[in-house]
Amino acid sequence: MKIVVCVKYVPDATGDRGFNDDGTTDRESVDSLLSELDEYAIEQALKIVESGVEAEITYLTVGPDDAKDALRKALAMGGDNAIHVNDDDIAGTDALGTSLILAKAIEDAGFDLVVCGMASTDASMGVVPAMLAERLGVPQVTYLDEITVEGAGKGGGVVKGRREGDVATELIEASLPAVVSVTDRTGEARYPSFKGIMAAKKKTVVSKDLDDLGIESDEVGLSAAWSVVDTATKRPPRAKGEVVEDEGEGGVQLAAFLAAKKFI
Amino acid sequence: MAEILVLVDHADGAVRKPTLELLTLARRLGEPAAVFLGKGAEGATETLGRYGAQKVYVVDAPEVDEYLVAPAVDALAQIAGGGAPGAILVASSNDGREIAARVAVRLESGLITDAVDVEAGPEGPVTEQSVFAATYQVKAHVTKGTPIITVKPNAATPEEAPATPTVEAVTVDFTASATGTKVVSRAPREKSDRPELTEADIVVSGGRGVNGAENFHVIESVADALGAAVGASRAAVDAGWYPHSHQVGQTGTQVSPQLYVAVGISGAIQHRAGMQTSKTIVAINKDEDAPIFDLVDYGVVGDLFKVMPQLEAEINKRK
Ligand SMILES: Cc1cc2nc3c(=O)[nH]c(=O)nc-3n(C[C@H](O)[C@H](O)[C@H](O)COP(=O)(O)OP(=O)(O)OC[C@H]3O[C@@H](n4cnc5c(N)ncnc54)[C@H](O)[C@@H]3O)c2cc1C
Ligand SMILES: Cc1cc2nc3c(=O)[nH]c(=O)nc-3n(C[C@H](O)[C@H](O)[C@H](O)COP(=O)(O)OP(=O)(O)OC[C@H]3O[C@@H](n4cnc5c(N)ncnc54)[C@H](O)[C@@H]3O)c2cc1C
């Protein structure tokens, strides 16, 4: 079967992230990398194959030139090949547009299972997997802490998982094809080995543009976005309050502060 | 005035506080109409009316309970498609965001998630988001279709505006996709007497510094003295000291209470992403260089096992 793993290239969360004047993300002043939460998606795809499911793993990213780095890192962890959707007209695309591009690329590649992270580490909307299920017309099995695939092959198979729902722990399942998203509780992702890094250099990364996917340039990008940023303002850093050393009265002093603020 | 659809978040008819906040915000934009899915609408209607719902759409179908997300999408999209709502407001829970996302695709409408405020604007609702771990405030609006907005808990204070809503039972034509994902089993989380994390006015959280499940009572007793919810860092959760449902942060629950008390928590960016919008922040940590102190309104550098019991005693004395 075919597994497509969606991986996003994002500004480093530990850097000083910000915006350009047109409301798009400033990608110049901060280094970017493979979204950490997508490493869990990669790990689970690799685990599915290691569990005996015969599958080809394809990584997919929508992003600028250097988003290839995210694909190279993924390929170094394992998997077979990658698709990079890159087009000047994509800049500034919102979640609706991004999900459209991803869905077209996934259909184009063919799939039995799409694996996503639970959210990106930049916008962290956590909506793209659900949007993909809607666009692809297949079940969504999202926010999984555990995932297994059974009886895969020849168009059959089910995906099962456990999720901490908003009010209950749920066991859920769906037949393939399906879209899943996995959390950071699915288990630590592996580090690329030296062998993996060398092998990744030989794996193919196919580049596609909007034309290849049959998407008109006016369907995506900043000008076509379904929502616009009016203003983006840096919050002044929180004014640092008083910090006291506990010399035996720390609890009492803190209580006095809380009382003054009417919390007690 | 255009109808503003509010998707009701409830447990067997008990309406959750974020929904009351949504109704309050909806009144700024138009005429609030609640969309109630599942069982228990009779009991909920009074509450929804009290907070301003002029109308309650009710979808009582087994699909909504037995399958995830997709049936709610069918219901909400059908109700919205039957009129011309001015906006659709949904609470920012995992399910809420996903429902909103799919309705946005289906109605070909713009989506804004995790708003911390919503106001009426010349071209429809203007939202405020707090992004990049709360270092930026972004104002945005939807330019196409029906504005679909998910709103974080505690974005507004619920205000009563009593109305007597008309109730309309809706029969939904569920699509094939509605029954695609089956819930095989559901184990409801143990109920505690403490307030829910997202709704609480005060949250007291423990981190790796608590050093063991057997020590978490130190956090719990102060939480109880303050009437607070208990939170935990991912380090504490990963170690198995406290249930995951209490994790605060990027991949846990995002909270925005009046008061956040961080105990034995260093203040990593991913933790800050989940609590940085709290109104008042207080920390106890033995390391004076812990990054959490950069955020605090008041901090105590000290051993939590000395400070917390003293704090608890002092709170009880002052009450
Ligand atoms: C601060 C900020 C706020 C934003 N707010 C909004 C908003 O309110 N409304 C809106 O419509 N757009 C918004 N955007 C734009 C939106 O983030 C992008 O369109 C994005 O690609 C999709 O959203 P996400 O990254 O939050 O995805 P999420 O839904 O959080 O991502 C989940 C998973 O989807 C997959 N995925 C997401 N994007 C890609 C990609 N480009 N390539 C491959 N896989 C991917 C990954 O597996 C990822 O783990 C915002 C962007 C930023 C930086
Ligand atoms: C993709 C990703 C997502 C993540 N999501 C989250 C998330 O949602 N939530 C989250 O919390 N983290 C998250 N993390 C983890 C985060 O990076 C940190 O590892 C975590 O927050 C650390 O938890 P901590 O502060 O409890 O532990 P530590 O960083 O180990 O800090 C413990 C603190 O306790 C103090 N201490 C120790 N003993 C005492 C004592 N006796 N008295 C007083 N103070 C004491 C120490 O000085 C120290 O500052 C995520 C990480 C990644 C990579």
UniProtKB/TrEMBL annotation, chain A:
GO terms for cellular component: cytosol. Residues 22-217 form the Electron transfer flavoprotein alpha/beta-subunit N-terminal domain. Keywords: Electron transport, Transport. Its cofactor is FAD. InterPro entries: ETF_a/b_N (IPR014730), ETF_b (IPR012255), ETF_beta_N (IPR033948), Rossmann-like_a/b/a_fold (IPR014729). The keyword Lyase does not apply. Pfam families: ETF. GO terms for molecular function: electron transfer activity. The keyword 4Fe-4S does not apply. Belongs to the ETF beta-subunit/FixA family. Heterodimer of an alpha and a beta subunit. The electron transfer flavoprotein serves as a specific electron acceptor for other dehydrogenases. It transfers the electrons to the main respiratory chain via ETF-ubiquinone oxidoreductase (ETF dehydrogenase). This is Electron transfer flavoprotein subunit beta. It comes from Embleya scabrispora.
From TrEMBL, chain B:
Binds 1 FAD per dimer. GO terms for biological process: fatty acid beta-oxidation using acyl-CoA dehydrogenase. Its cofactor is FAD. One of its GO terms (molecular function) is electron transfer activity. Residues 4-183 form the Electron transfer flavoprotein alpha/beta-subunit N-terminal domain. FAD binds at residues 208, 233-234, 247-251, 264-271, 285. Keywords: Electron transport, FAD, Flavoprotein, Transport. Gene3D superfamilies: HUPs (3.40.50.620), TPP-binding domain (3.40.50.1220). InterPro entries: DHS-like_NAD/FAD-binding_dom (IPR029035), ETF_a/b_N (IPR014730), ETF_a/FixB (IPR001308), ETF_alpha_N (IPR033947), ETF_asu_C (IPR014731), ETF_asu_C_CS (IPR018206), Rossmann-like_a/b/a_fold (IPR014729). Belongs to the ETF alpha-subunit/FixB family. The electron transfer flavoprotein serves as a specific electron acceptor for other dehydrogenases. It transfers the electrons to the main respiratory chain via ETF-ubiquinone oxidoreductase (ETF dehydrogenase). Heterodimer of an alpha and a beta subunit. This is Electron transfer flavoprotein subunit alpha. It comes from Embleya scabrispora.
